[in-house]
Structures are given as structure tokens and as C-alpha cells.
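Hey, quick one: can you model this chain's 3D structure?
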Amino acid sequence: MKGVRQKSPWLWIPSLYFAQGLPYVAVMMIAVILYKRMGLGNAEIALYTSWLYLPWVIKPLWSPFVDLAKTKRWWIVTMQSLIAVGFAGIAFFIPTTYYLQLTLAFFWLLAFSSATHDIAADGFYMLSLNTGEQSFFVGIRNTFYRFAMIFGQGILVAVAGFLEKSKNNIPLAWSITFFLLAGIFIALSLYHKAVLPKPTEDTPRGNLTPRELLRDFWKTFVSFFTKDDIGLILFFLLTYRLGEAQLLKLSSPFMLDPVSDGGLGLDTATVGVAYGTLGVAALLAGGILGGIVVSRDGFRKWIIPMALCLNLADLFYVFLAIFQPENILFITSCIVLEQLGYGFGFTAYTLFLISIANGTYKTAHYAIGTGFMALGMMLPGMIAGWLQETMGYTLFFWWVCLCTAPGIVAAFFVSRKIDPVFGKK
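Sure thing. Here's the predicted structure for all 425 residues.
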């Protein structure tokens, strides 16, 4: 057992990973819907919200300092408090004239606090549990992280949609929703301050100076780029979701835009239920199915089918854009099938990330890999809104499908050259 545990893991692991997932969903998904409902154009929405990926892209650069200063426990409670401040700031400034500039500033605070919280929470998890407990609770932590996605992207968006109609005031509805998020994180920070254990290994690394830490970090960082087939690794990380990175930024605006503008004309609450709740549930189901088939038949057999499922499922949006159906059940079915394929295909990406991290610097290399994953979402997402406004929804979704080709090619070469479990052939 690691350290001295004062509280049962069941008291803090579910809430800790719910707290890890909720601000990420708010920054990446809820912000898109908020700005769409506030009347911002798709080009601006995609550009501004894609920039918010940056803290997750560069978080490996400051992760060593989370080890050096204070304890992981301190970082968790402090970051959750800052996240509450971020949500409250967004809520306060939504109804103001300069809402865009001011809410974006607090979204940046939210993003950096959330990325730092990720570092501290994952480190605390490893310090507080022994190896057997870590294995046992990995499914629990992932489940509650996904619950946060459903709660944020689904339930909260549906609540905002209900408030839009009942209050007949879009800024007020979203302000109330974000004040609710602030209240949740005030409660979470107080709760975790009370229940998080104090493992003896959770101490600042005072024996290392910042200079020594920088030297060790640089050595670790450079070692990532000396891996065999590093070119193929980076190609896979940056292109596997090239199409999906653009689709994710425009899927909610497409559903919310009126039919006359090429959208589906859905209201906010319907998007929360169809996309944020049922769609995310299908995403989870796809991920579970992916794990099952890989455990049975091996990664190499399934990587290409997974790449095809993830990428070809984007054709559902082409169909929706061409025909603009009015039947909510039919629209929801298309969303669910696309998300099922995405969840199934994303399993390959997750397992690839884990496999390339194997070696001496497992934790650091995994963090670097997730940084490239975020970069692969940020860069395509930044131009997605401009492309959509230039092309219209139908051509844009055809473009998204064309952008899936590099990811499928990358999966083909990975299947032939790299064994994600046992290393290079």
C-alpha cells in the first residue's frame, strides 16, 4: 500500500474524475453551444474555442512543476477552486456588452486550471493507491469521467435550453447554467478538501532545484523523439482524427442553425438530449465494444476496421446536410450511429497512446502523446468554422470525409509496421 490512506477510495475517486471531466466538456463542447446561442458566427466559434485546446497541448511543459511545488492534494483543491471562479466569471459576464472578450478570458482560466487539475489528479491517483487498487478503480474513474460528459454536454445543455424557453432570455439562461456549474465546483473543492487522503508520498520534490528539474525534463522530452518509427507515430497522432476534429466543432452549430441556413433547426434542449446524452451514451458503448474485441482478437486485427468506423461514420452528417430531415427520432438515430462509430474507432487511438508510452519514461511520454492528440484537434478545428462558412454545410461535411483519408492510411501503416502491444516487428 502506498502511504497512509485515511478515506476509502470510493469516497473520492468517482467525484475526483467527475470533477476532471466536467470543465473539459465545458471548454470543448458547452462553449461552442453557448456562443452559437449568443449569435456568434461559426468561423469565430471554431477559431476561439479551438485555441482553448492549447493548455492541454502544452501541459507536459509545466507538469514537472506540479511535482516540484506543493502537494498533488493541494493542487487538486486549489485548481477546483479556480475552476469555480472561472465558471462564476463566465456566468457573470454573459449578459454584458463585451461578453465575448470577458467570457473567453475566464474560459482560458478554466482551461489552464483544468489541464493542471488533470496532471495533479492522475498523479494523486497513482500515489494514493497500490497497483492492484489502481487496476480495480481504472474502470470506475473512466466511467465517472464519462458521466461528466453526459451531465455537462447533455443534462446541463438541456437545462439551458429549458431556461431559454421559460425565461425567454438566452443570456440569462446560460448565466444561470454557469452559476450552477460554479456552485458545483465550490461544493467539490470543499468536499475534496475534507475527504481526500494524505498519502505520505504526496510531498513536494524539494530535493530537486528548478534547474535540475528542467534538465531532467529536457532529457525525458527529447527521448520521446528518439523512438523507433517516430515519424509514423506523429503522423498517426496528428491525422487519425483529422476529419473528426473539424466535425466536432461544427456538429452542434449544424444542429442549431435554422434550415434556411443549411442546419437542422433543432432547439437547445433537443441538442442536449440527442447529441449530449444519447450520443455520448453511444460513444461510451462504442468504446466498451472496442475494448472487448481488441481483448479477444488483438489490436492488429481491429485497427483498420476501427479507423474505418471512426471516419466513415462522418457520412451520416453528409446525409443529414443534404436531406435536412425533420423527424427527431431519425436525426437522433444518425447522431447515435456516428457517435457509436467514433467511440469504437477511438479505442485504437487510446491503445496506441498507451503503447507508445511504454519504456523508461512512461508517464511523461504518455503526457507528450496526449499533447500531440490535443494539437491534432486544435489546428484543424481552428479553420473548420471558416471552411464551413465558405463551403456551406453539405460541402463542408464532404470535405470532412475527404480529410479522413490520411487517418485511414496512417492506421494501415501502423498495422503493418508497429505492434502496439509488443513493439516493432
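One thing worth noting: Confidence is low (pLDDT under 50) at residues 1-5.
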